[in-house]
Amino acid sequence: MAVARFRSILALKTRVLIVSLLLLNSTFSQPAAGFGDARRRNMKEKVRQMFYHAYENYMAYAFPHDELKPLTSTFTDSLSELGNLKLEHLPQNYQGSALTLIESLSSLVVLGNNTEFEKGVLWLAENLSFDVDARVNLFECNIRVLGGLLSAHILATDSKNRLERGIYQNQLLDLAEDLGRRFLRAFDTPTGLPYAWINLKYGVVENETTETSTSGCGSLILEMGALSRLTGNPRYENAARHALQKLWSMRSSLNLLGTTLDVVTGEWIEYSSGIGAGVDSFYEYLLKAYILFGSDEFWDMFHSVYLAVQKYFRHGPWYHEADMRTGRATYWQLTSLQAFWPGLQILIGDVAAANASHREFYHVWERFGVLPERYLLDRNVLHPTEKYYPLRPELAESTFYLYQATKDPWYMEVGESIVSSLNRYAKVTGGFASIRDVTTMQQEDHQHSFFLSETCKYLYLLYDDTFLAGQNYIFTTEGHPLPIRSSWHEKLPESYIPHNWTRVKNEDDVLHVSSMSLQVCPVTVPENSGRGVESACHIPDNHVDHRCRTDGECGIDSTTCRQRTCSLAGYCGLWVFID
């Protein structure tokens, strides 16, 4: 990318790290004005009750299998193709992967239940095995099982003394490495891009599909990288990083990527792309990998693709899909997975842009009572077949991040509405059921594990963030916390890190000035060098003299994050906003 596209990329990258770490390292114990302490405690208790209603029913009726079927109080082994088999056809002595238990461990710590956390850790240490003839989805197994085990291991060995001394001997890390070794067989392709499916016992089976998604092969770096950092074995990170590099090399001249591809030929299958299903966590992991591991390579990828997303996908507060080759719009639709995007924007300080999109998602939630899986923006109607809501966490996640960034009590009220809807429409005697049809609120017999690992966790943190006090964490796409450690970072010049930003922040510390602290998007921040810092949302005009013939030649304004337009005189500017 040309130097002329932004001033002081070094300062911008430093600001993103500072913004992210100030957000994740701060203690916010005081209730926001307008949302009193009693009301906050009441909401905290409601979320706690939600979590335990879901968790206890899983433990009673589904454990040690993967997930709970709350309407019938039975189970499903949904992580693998075994979930499609009847009980009598399961492999002999197969007990399941205890997926929901693994997913719940970090949430138990967030809720302060170290006793149940210890019980879960010890059961997994004694009983969990991956030596089973089961075909699993690599992406889902990575973010749910590997990520859950690594996070629980870290929480079991940190300085909080959550477990009785001497009873834990890194068994979860051993299990995680065993799983990671099994994953490596998926990367044995001509391109280095991994297969989407792998048999845990036998590796890639004959005639396995070669189709995967951008997220599926580009969202492995946090978990695989953390596994390498914890074990000292670089093979896991190298495999995930090579796949990410190969994927990035397949981008178009517009810096856009498609949705699905062939891992053997390295050719795109679906050229249309957006910020939702099939691509979402790819963006997320580029930025979070930069924060977690400190490599310039991750930042350069993220910054380039973020600019491209803002230029070709953004339409006001909405994001449509477009052809990666031309940038032309293909599908005008909202998908529930897109609701993660405002939370990601908070990590780079684009607060105003995040707020604008978040409010639109919430308006859709208010209209239907929950967030439908797909909504057609161009026709202003629900998608005819994707009218379900599987208890997804993305809106709650972005609400949590926006509250932490702004302290606006309105976001607590949004959380209150989400909690109310979940209890009204999804709660049943046997747990929390997914919604099959948002127009009728017909329920479906499935309680996804991410309801406990993410939805309940982010809602609880919205009202009680004690878990984050004095800590730096990055949450994976499945809501599992990984610590930001200076020892995990690649060697960086001191100018990148003017202070040790991974240390615990004291009350007397002077906060760095940033777009996060000033609550504007973007902001020109005075630096010691006297040079400004641009927001990552800035897209320059096509011509340095700002001349234009059409609106398409104008970029995103660097002081408001608004789309610039072409005037009758032929110059780009914010003309539509002048009174």
Q: How is this structure best described in words?
A:
- It comes from Dendrobium nobile.
- Residues 1-29 form the signal peptide.
- The chain has 579 residues and is mainly alpha-helical.
- Helix content is 41%, strand content 10%.
- The protein has 17 helices and 22 strands.
- Strands 5-6-7 form a 3-stranded antiparallel β-sheet. The chain has a 3-stranded antiparallel β-sheet with strand order 12-13-14, with no helix packed on it.
- β1 and β2 (74-76) form a beta hairpin.
- α3 (99-110) packs parallel to α16, α5 packs antiparallel against α6 (171-184) and α6 (171-184) packs across α8 (221-231).
- The two termini are 35 Å apart.
- Residues 1-11, 82-90 and 492-534 have low confidence and may be disordered.
Describe the SSE topology.
Blueprint: H1 9-25, H2 37-61, E1 67-69, E2 74-76, H3 99-110, H4 114-127, E3 135-137, H5 138-157, H6 171-184, E4 197-199, E5 211-213, H7 214-218, H8 221-231, H9 235-249, E6 260-262, E7 268-270, E8 272-273, H10 280-293, H11 296-312, E9 314-315, E10 318-319, E11 322-323, E12 333-335, H12 341-347, H13 351-368, E13 374-376, E14 381-382, H14 394-406, H15 410-426, E15 427-428, E16 431-432, E17 434-437, E18 442-444, H16 450-463, E19 473-475, E20 481-483, H17 515-518, E21 565-566, E22 572-573
Antiparallel strand pairs: 1-2, 3-4, 5-6, 6-7, 8-11, 9-10, 12-13, 13-14, 15-16, 17-18, 19-20, 21-22
